[in-house]
User: What shape does this take?
Amino acid sequence: MALALYRALPFGRMDMRNAEVIALAQALGRTPASVALKLVNFASFDPDLQERGIKGMANSGRGDRLTWDVYANDLDKLASESERILASWESEAPQLAAQDQETLPIPEGREREAVVRIRIGQNIFRDSVLRAYDFRCCISGLAVKELLNASHIIPWSVNPMERLNPRNGLCLNATLDRAFDRGLITVMTDGRVRVSADLTTVPESPALRESILRYDGEKITPSARFAPEVRFLSYHNSERFRG
Assistant: This one.
């Protein structure tokens, strides 16, 4: 559970005053300080933070290392295990988000379990990506959580191995998410937004200019964590973008 929280929080928010740290500490019967320490322990193994010169705690325990090795790079397993623990705390089966129930027919048995695990994982993916951008669209700056999506750069159907990797995501508002998914916009490897020439054939309107065209050439807001992988952006530029 601590590792699941670690994956969601920027490094600067891993302290004992954070409401989510306090909530997890209460659920575990631990102090907020001990949970915060556990989060910082995990930071000592995180290659992303090491690249930024952040080392975490120097004396992390063997158990922390084992937990990291087993779960940190297997987000499917982490999502499944953390949801199982949550369900045991709440004495109820894992529930799908309402919007997922509306858009996805849920089968029975093992197939249902697989679908539930995918949806749980996508919820963790969304949470990680939105938090990384401080719940703001990285292009428009819109900060209404209900209007934000975690957009896959490489669609998970194309590369399932990267479907839960938060570096394969961008926080976009609903309109820009749709445009990105349809290849009408892309983000170049230097962070600049490009708008497809296809949109120039559409009669220009104030709505189109304000919602999409105005961002052509602008740079996205950098992520506080999980910056998009260059190779993922390159794929979108060449394979998805209708330049």
About this structure: The beta strands are 148-152, 169-173, 185-187, 193-195.
